[in-house]
Amino acid sequence: MKYEVIDKIEQIEVIATGKSVREISRLNRIYGKGRWRKLKGITKVRFEDGRVCKADVHWYEAHGIGKKGFKIKQIFD
Known about the structure:
This protein is mainly β and 77 residues long. The chain contains 1 helix and 5 strands; from the N terminus they run E-E-H-E-E-E.
């Protein structure tokens, strides 16, 4: 199901950095070399059917490249 992040991400935590990021080779190949980190946080998301829910999301981020690969891990509402 498609969704979009519609609010500021809060309670951000770093899960992995550097070689601890399992997808590092794929991220470097697709988006370019960078100092990749895996993060998690809580935000509101809107699904394609119009529902708005609070969710725990995970994503990858690198300086100069930005946030990539958002995944919803848990829905709270």
